[in-house]
Amino acid sequence: MLREPNVSRLLFADPRLAPIWALLRIYVGYEWLMAGWEKITNPAGVWVGEKAGTAVGGFLTGALAKTGGAHPDVQGWYAWFLQHVALPNAATFSYLVAYGEVLVGAALIVGLFTGIAAFFGGVMNASYLLAGTISTNPLLFILATWLVLGWRVAGWWGLDRWVLALFGVTATPPSAAQPATVR
Fold it and tell me: Cα–Cα distance between 52 and 91 in angstroms, integer?
């Protein structure tokens, strides 16, 4: 039997910290929602619409240009993926990115499947980082990782409190005072 440390239980499972998790979750969700919304409503239609894939193709081409030198920003294995998988399917990836950002953002804002949404947000952040783009990606990746770790309480002030109970996840996370064990 393995006991969960008190500090871990406090940080990642105590509903008394739900307000802090909610602020963090809503901030990350807002960042994703706005990024995706800008892409979907782009009047040039380079993300979704008749010119879908144009923006992604340009981004990927720029990433491929960062593969040279002694210390490349984009590693060879990821460049292979970009060149042979992503670039030939730029239009598909364009829709995936634009709508994925909106879905991750909306789910985080309302607190629905918070851990899953944060995980996919982190995957997108890691993809952008691997493509040599810094921007807000390191911060959002760190925050997404924390949200994944705190999934039990991160959506407590959100829909997760009720929706997860429908899937058999307890509706009441244990408090820091209750001993939690893992078998």
Answer: 5
Encode pLDDT of 81-135 as tens digits.
999 999 999 999 999 999 999 999 999 999 999 999 999 999 999 999 999 999 9
Structural domain spans, the chain: 18-162
The model's pTM is 0.90
Measured at the CA of 152, the angle between CA 148 and CA 158, to 5 degrees, comes to 95
- The three-state secondary structure class of 182 is strand
Helix (H, G, I), strand (E, B) or coil at 3: strand
User: Largest alpha-carbon pair distance within the chain?
Assistant: 58
**Alpha-carbon gap, residue 83 to 79, rounded angstroms:** 6
